[in-house]
Amino acid sequence: MLNFLKMALGPRPTLDRRSSSSSALSNGSGLDIRVGKPPHARPLNISRSALKACPVLRARLGQGSTIMNADPVVFEIILDYLDSSGFLEMVRPNSQNPLEYLIGGSDMMLKLAKAWHIADMLDLMHLQNKLVDTYRILYLKLLNSRIRMPLDREPFTYLRNHMGTHTKLEKFLIDIYAGLARYDGNFSVEELDDLPNDIAQSLKQRRAQLVVQGNFDDRIAIGDACFKVSKSDETRRTSLHVTPPPPLRSTSNGSLRPQSGYTVSTVCSMHSPPLSPPTTPISSTSMGYIGGHRVRLSLSGITSISGQPDVLVSPSALPAVWSTFGTAMRPARTRSTSTTTLLQSRAPFMDRAALASARQLDTDADGDSSDDETSQRSGRKYQSALDIQEQ
């Protein structure tokens, strides 16, 4: 008797079907999944025999999938039952029923409700009926010992939240609690307050019937089939909530691909500091030629290497130069003294056509360079034009 009470009301040993990468992946059998809502999900391995016994598992699950709406402890026990069913059950008919691991502890009726729900999602009606048979044996032992089971509202709440009202398991639970309470007084008000009103009324009425009629009306004791499910019941209301495994992310540099259209140079330019005005005077040596046309500027107190009073500046640098020198900057310079003097001394001997040609030569030479060598070359070109005119 003491051993039975320890078995019925004490904690049961737990199983360990946690997935092992060394065993599951080496032989290539079964599926490694996770059961439960994160972060409390547990890794489990589904063997090939369990997959063969349940078509729903084969159709819905893949390697690394997660079942969100199932209790991992109860699901593990059901997997053991699927492993032992079939050929193994015929070979060893007296072997221990894995569903007996649900029995034990104060939450064994809640585990019955969870197991019934999982069997419904897996479309395993024979498992639902096996659960009824397993708990019927427990009921008969407690009834013979006249042990009353404490009333618990959690299994009723779980069934209604996941499977609806007035299920066959709900009626089975009512008969269990009412049948075991027939020898120990009526239910207290405190016990019934937490339950839905219709369930509380059913418990009181069912207990009153069993007190009067005894075992003749005890449907669990006589093995009534009213608690068994069949295909004609159409009681399946739920399905597995399965999430696929997260995508694999490679950590090698070679597999990294750009996620946007930006290149490294673009990103560097986006984060480079803005152009600030120069702190030193700008001259022709500090500004390299990048491309395109340059603008000739005359800056106060600034001369080029050749001594000219102006420098060449690229258009992109004009804002920085303007912010530094301000009004002291002039966009153009006065023509060189040597060229101006040459034009004035030679002008009386030239006609208008020769003078225009000379001025054009001077303008071209003036735009190409700003040093003394360019001015002398322009003077020689101008002298050649005058010699032609005199001839």
UniProtKB/TrEMBL annotation:
Annotated region (Disordered), positions in chain: 13-39, 234-259, 357-391
Compositional bias ranges of the Acidic residues kind: 363-373
Source organism superkingdom: Eukaryota
Biased composition (Polar residues): 249-259
UniProt biased composition (Low complexity): 20-31
Entry protein name: BTB domain-containing protein
Organism listed in the record: Decorospora gaudefroyi
Taxonomic path: Eukaryota, Fungi, Dikarya, Ascomycota, Pezizomycotina
